[in-house]
Design goal:
Blueprint: H1 2-28, E1 31-41, E2 47-54, E3 58-62, H2 69-72, E4 78-81, E5 87-91, E6 97-101
Antiparallel strand pairs: 1-2, 1-4, 2-3, 4-5, 5-6
Length: about 100
């Protein structure tokens, strides 16, 4: 019984630690770009993903961690992620914009 409790405590600590690392990683990311493609990435558990063109390269960003962002976004929309924030902003060509918050 004592081993089970210690194991459970260790598991909970590891899960919290992993969530903190993921959250900190998301906070460190910064980009401004244009959505080139929205797709389900078969190599990453079929997660919705944005192909984003920035001023100096292109990158793939997992959209699933920002719920429903892939439903709002269209090819050609601007997508912005500021360093230190846990959300993205998608700006439409017509000037509308919407914020999508990070969800673990």
């Amino acid at each position: 019984m004592k081993k089970n409790i210690i194991g459970l405590i260790i598991l909970v600590f590891c899960l919290i630690s992993c969530k903190d690392r993921v959250r900190n990683h998301i906070k460190d990311i910064q980009f401004k770009g244009i959505v080139l493609k929205i797709f389900k990435d078969k190599d990453n558990h079929n997660m919705y993903t944005f192909k984003i063109k920035t001023s100096n390269n292109s990158l793939d960003g997992v959209a699933d961690i920002f719920p429903n962002s892939w439903e709002y976004a269209e090819i050609g929309d601007s997508i912005i992620k500021e360093k230190g924030e846990l959300y993205i902003t998608i700006k439409k060509k017509n000037g509308d914009n919407k914020i999508f918050y990070f969800e673990e």
